[in-house]
## 1
Amino acid sequence: MRVGRSSTASLLLFAGFANGIACGSDHTGHDASALERSIATSIGERLGVPVVARCMGLVACVTLLPDGDRIPIITWPGKNGAWEWRVEGLLVASDVLERYLREVVREMGAPQDVKCSPKLRRIAPNDRVDCWLANGGKAFVTVRADGSTSVEVEPDKVAADARSEVVTPARDEQMTKSSRALEDEDDDGEGDEPAIDAGAVESAP
């Protein structure tokens, strides 16, 4: 297991401006504004797939990913009449994270492939990203607001699965009931050994 810290600002660079980008139709045939085209082009090139950006006016924009996920975009007027934008929250690109984690496990003496999905995810600061090691373990990456990370690698599959389990209120109640049931079984078992009649015990000659 390893805990470390690394600057991963490259995971979070999704921002731009619409100056100099002409209006025109996007790949869906929508008559896209310069702002929509700027957003769609920047994020689409990073992902390697076409995405769609839609803006309601010039203040509320959203990017539609191929898997149906929606990424809110914050916009504001910039210099020289250009509109600038950035993703709301943090965006983690899995390919960058995978490359870093492959280097981590290699340095640990256990080189193997690492997979993180989806390809792009939006998270809040201090959220944790779980990734899978080819040999069965997992890596857990916490991303801070400044792009730095803390990394924990658990190579053992059983321990990794236990570490990654999300304890919902329902799951917590289930575990509590199971624990109480085991305690009740232990209590029921006490005093079950047969009583010894002191009068029936003969002294050894």
## 2
Amino acid sequence: MYKYLKYSYILFLLCLVSCSSDDTDEFQDAVTLNVMNEVNGKTFIGNSDVFLNKNNNFQSESWYIAPAGTLDKETQPDLVSLIREAAAEPNHLYCLYNSGSFITFRSGEKAIYLGSEYYKLIVESNIPSNDLIQGMKVKYKRMIVSDNKLPAKNTMIGSMANVGDEISYNVGNVAEYAFDEALSYNQDCFDISLSNGVLKIIQKKPVDKIHGPYGDYKIFIRSGNVFTSLAFQVGV
């Protein structure tokens, strides 16, 4: 009995150690990088244009920077108030987003495209030199925007060829929708509505294969801070 209890206790300790080390170390497969500031080499993070300026703040011209708390107290990145410069602090988390992944909906809400790539990083420590900070040691990893409440992007929802043709598609708990450039240009040819989780599209004008509407159109739908695209065909 004593041997059995001792063996069980050892197994429990091994499981506790392995689970705590493997499950909590989110950055164990991340890239380690010495990010030197613009005075000491100006290192860029991944494929972004994010660097450390002379004040040792993260800065970017075209990417967004979103502070995300610390490892001990991680917070959801604020996608409403995205910034181009943020203080780089040890043990703090950040998310870096390509501005081309976002659109702003009619409500003023900004959302990121489903499937977009971004970087998540943690600042591990300063890189000192003669009582000055010349850079930061960071770990970063590539992430993919996901949302299991939304359909895959470019989901084809139907087609229409004649006046009066209708497409109905259940989109669930979606907040609002927006049009791509082609649909915005030809939106007077369709009656589009969203009610009780159902997106409805009715063709109002006949297809003109020379001047349009003709071809594929996209509607963007938003749930929270993430959006996806639905496609439908006209006259094909």
## 3
Amino acid sequence: MDASSARHRAIGAIRARVLAAGTGGWFRDAEHVQLAVASAARAPDEITAVLFNDAVRRAVRGRAAALAITGDEWRALFGVDTRPWKEDGVAQCAGQAGCVDVLAKLQHALRCTVSETNEAKAWSNTWNRLAVYVALHLSDTETHIASTLGNFVGGDSRRVEELAVSMEDDGIDALALSAAIDCLSKTVA
């Protein structure tokens, strides 16, 4: 299956889950993707509260696991072989103070992974780095990072987990993360 077909299938599956939750009939596809990604976050209610209004939040409360983006959908939308349809605002979003700080820490935490030739090439792309930034906040971090960069070296596992826990302890920057989710979703849907 080519990348475009996989992307369309992923967006269709996400749309169907959101509509089955009783909300999102007025959403654009990018907003369906936003809800699926936000639902996969370690703090889904916090991110959903920034991205969506009260009616949507009430409709999806307690349904994060059912709405969350799957590994296959993440790969189809943000995988190493996938390219965005447009990159409007990606550099600006990745350049936000909160995002820049976390990306620097991520590069250090992923030092084994990004020292590999193909993964270094993927990491050098701003869109991929922004996707990895979002993946850091999701429940299946390593799988999503591996999908976006092409691989995940096990030697980075502890450092990435420690970074994620440290960020949770300090409180995530919900505005920066929501902006990144919004920006990424608009590049693929």
